[in-house]
Amino acid sequence: MKILVLNCGSSSLKYQVLEMSATSNTLLAKGLVERIGSPNACHSHKIDRKDKYQVEKAISNHTEAIRSVLEMLTDVEYGVMKDLSEIEAVGHRVAHGGEFFFKSVPIDDDVMDKIEKCCQLAPLHNPANLTGIKAMAELMPDVPQVAVFDTSFHQSMPDYAYIYALDYSYYEKYKIRRYGFHGTSHKFVAEKACKLAGMDLDKTKLITCHLGNGSSVTAIDCGRSVDTSMGFTPVEGVTMGTRSGNLDIGVVTFLMEKEGLDAAGINNLVNKQSGLQGLSGFSSDCRDLVDAEKSGYYRAELALKKLAYDIKKYIGAYAAVLNGVDMIVFTGGIGENSDRVRELICTGLDYLGVSFDFKKNAGTRGVDVVLSKRNSKVKVMAVTTNEELVIATDTMDIVNELREKAAIEENN
Ligand code: ADP
Asked: What is the pLDDT of residue 248?
């Protein structure tokens, strides 16, 4: 079954086409459309045994971006199918499912309506996800679409972990609680790391650190998420690319008064102008900060140290939550690639039983690797994530279920 996986950001679109079966999966093509909405958008596309194809052109919206992807998929030279009818299903990454969704679901009008309702909870992501779903429905109306939520893995959190200490009526009235995000990634790397390390996920206490532009840390006990650093929205938790992470609410009200900011203004400030970007004053990209730190730029060094310190604090907290930890896993663009950030986090974790291999860590990027020493009580690994594979698997399972149901109904 050929499945197209779409991950729509506000101005970007990541995609993969996977050939899926119950026993195997093959990545046929992957690509990225960046700078959607600009005259010099960039579409890059990669298939096996061919150099990456890259073209710059005007792409004004997500529908045009998806059209460009579909053209590429049937291209004589770079395509992976003769006809688009070979795509049997589309799986979408959706950031926030609120309390509506506890698992992946086939998309219909009701689901779209509920995703729309969750837009206020994830203002950077849900609107973009929805745009992609609508564009796909317009271009390929007969192909089933599935939504895979970043929030569903964390639905196993106990009530005392997900509740905020506010008047309980706000939970009842508005469902204000902690939801958590990056669920597909945390679940995937936990399973993968255990498999690689020969450990039984059902008996393992894990702390997974997904560190990218958005970052979150999760405590996983026997395969179940029991706490995670993101909350009601993806702004809670550790310092991120442009998001502030945890903030004293007093700062919010103070700034609203002093700067004359309304709700939209303060939302914009904590989501888009804070984090590594806000601290460094010049970039949200970890690579830029590492380079600038080497040149002695104080605010880049401060931003990196703050990021690592936040994550270290969550590791300590989650070791307490789990009553110990067997493995710490790093993933995401920063977790997989930044030896500097991993080094900062893992310095001084000896008390916990982490014996970090600083030599092995240095220069290691983009691979599945054990970064702790042989005798380390707590294993440390960096593992590449593959959210698209989780999305494709869920999509395949749901489409198969729907087909089985339809076949039974037909026989009756
Ligand atoms: P997103 O949350 O948008 O999916 P990613 O997981 O792609 O983000 O992570 C983006 C982050 O990863 C950026 O801060 C980038 O600097 C960082 N990153 C990517 N490659 C490297 C690298 N080689 N060294 C250090 N950081 C890297």
From this structure: 98
83-132: pLDDT as tens digits:
999 999 999 999 889 889 989 999 999 999 999 998 878 777 899 999 99
* 150 has catalytic annotation: yes
State residue 279's pLDDT score.
98
CA of 354 to the centre of ligand 1 (A): 25
DSSP letter for 180, please. -
Q: Is 176 among the domain residues?
A: no
Please say whether the beta carbons of 220 and 189 come within 8 A.
Answer: no
Q: Which of 184, 287, 339 to mutate to test the pocket of ligand 1 (most atoms within 8 A of CB)?
A: 287
Domain that holds residue 34: 2-149
- Answer yes or no: is pLDDT of 303 > 80: yes
Mean pLDDT computed over 273-279: 98
- Tell which atom from ligand 1 comes closest to the C-alpha of 215: 2
Q: Domain containing 60 — which CATH number? A: 3.30.420.40
Contact 43, 59 (CB under 8 A): yes
State phi, psi for 249 to the nearest 5 degrees: -60, -25
Q: List pLDDT tens digits, range 152-172.
A: 999 999 999 999 999 999 999
Atom of ligand 1 nearest to the CA of 290: 25
Domain match, 223 and 369 both: yes
Residue 400, domain member (yes or no): no
Q: Give the CB-side neighbour count of residue 271, counting CA atoms within 13 A.
A: 14
Helix 183-197 crosses helix 387-411 at what angle (to 10 degrees)?
Answer: 100
Indicate if 211 and 302 belong to the same structural domain.
yes
Percent of the residues in the chain that have a pLDDT greater than 70, as a whole number: 100
Supply the residue whose CA is at minimum distance from atom 3 of ligand 1: 213
Tell me the CA–centroid distance for residue 390 and ligand 1, in Å.
20
Task: Ligand 1: list residues with CB < 6 Å.
Answer: 212-214, 241, 285-287, 332-334, 337-338, 365
Same domain? 134 vs 216: no
Q: Which residues contact 102 (CB under 8 A, 6 or more apart)?
A: 152, 155
Does residue 110 lie within any of the structural domains?
yes
Shared domain for 127 and 247, answered yes or no, is no
**Residue 228 in this model has a pLDDT that exceeds 90:** yes
Contact at 8 Å (CB) between 216 and 208? no
Ligand 1 atom 25: the closest Cα is on which residue?
338
Pick the last residue of a domain from 86, 115, 149.
Answer: 149
